[in-house]
Amino acid sequence: EDKVVQSPLSLVVHEGDTVTLNCSYEVTNFRSLLWYKQEKKAPTFLFMLTSSGIEKKSGRLSSILDKKELSSILNITATQTGDSAIYLCAVEFLFEGGSEKLVFGKGTKLTVNP
Amino acid sequence: DSGVTQTPKHLITATGQRVTLRCSPRSGDLSVYWYQQSLDQGLQFLIQYYNGEERAKGNILERFSAQQFPDLHSELNLSSLELGDSALYFCASSVAGLRGAEAFFGQGTRLTVV
């Protein structure tokens, strides 16, 4: 069964700390891996990764994909209270019949305390 | 604001009933995706439509159905509702098919079945 596993499930840190969130996957016909941030309601897109070893960066957030290890990490440096959210990892892959499918992990709940 | 509009925002209904959730995608987006998010299951992909046609199917129950209309808005129909169907239902849209395209999420419809 295709699956996406995120760890840790929950993380509490202090402002200024650096955190690393993990996502591992077991899918066939991998296409891409996406990271989303979910605060109160709708997830918002952070990164899409398709090539192994290439780091995507946006401010204090960065992510890298390791296709050999079937995993990705999301780093957040100098965390702020506004980074508190659930971070979702999703993997896109080719399903039976040639259609694409997107599977989400259960997320990592990050709490940044002042 | 992602540009994806979902109505209604909240819905409370009794078991056995049928409801329709509506989604208007961002202007220009051809793909619409439906997701179900419950506390214990995380974000589950239900179904995707691309330019009016079903493109990919996920963990969608037979009691659920969806369609995308010529004006590209989509509706998710949930029938014979059960208590376990209570969840947050998200719609997302993207320009193209899943092929790693960034999907923008609506604010969701919270369905409560009593």
Notes on the protein architecture:
The complex is a heterodimer of chains A (114) and B (114). With 114 residues, chain A is mainly β. Chain A has no helices and eleven strands. In chain A, the strands form two sheets. In chain A, strands 2, 4, 5, 9, 10 and 11 form a six-stranded mixed β-sheet that branches. In chain A, strand 4 (30-38) and strand 5 form a beta hairpin. The mean pLDDT of chain A is 90. In chain B, a hairpin with a 5-residue loop joins strand 7 (64-68) and strand 8. Chain B has strands spanning 5-7, 10-13, 19-24, 31-38, 42-50, 53-57, 64-68, 74-78, 87-94, 104-105, 109-113. In chain B, the strands form two sheets. In chain B, strands 2, 4, 5, 6, 9, 10 and 11 form a seven-stranded mixed β-sheet that branches. Chain B is built from no helices and eleven strands. The chains are: A mainly beta (114), B mainly beta (114). Chain A binds chain B through residues 31-32, 34, 36, 41-45, 48, 50, 88, 90, 92, 95, 99-107, and chain B through 2, 4, 33, 35, 41-45, 48, 55-58, 88, 90, 97-100, 102-108.
The main β sheet of chain A shows up as: 6 strands, mixed
Number of H/I helices of chain B: 0
Work out the radius of gyration of chain B: 13 Å
SS class of chain A:
mainly beta
In terms of quaternary structure, the protein is heterodimer
Give Rg of chain A in angstroms: 14 Å
What general form of chain A does the structure show?
globular
Largest interface: A-B, 24 and 27 residues
Helix content of chain B: under 10%
Shape of chain B: globular
**Terminal-residue CA separation of chain B:** 31 Å
Biggest sheet features of chain B: 7 strands, mixed
Which regions of chain A have little confidence, pLDDT < 50, spanning 5+ residues? none
Order of helices and strands of chain A: EEEEEEEEEEE
Number of strands of chain B: 11
Quote the distance from N terminus to C terminus of chain A.
41 Å
One letter per element, helices H and strands E, the order of chain B comes to EEEEEEEEEEE
Give the mean pLDDT of chain B. 90
Structure annotation, total helices of chain A:
0
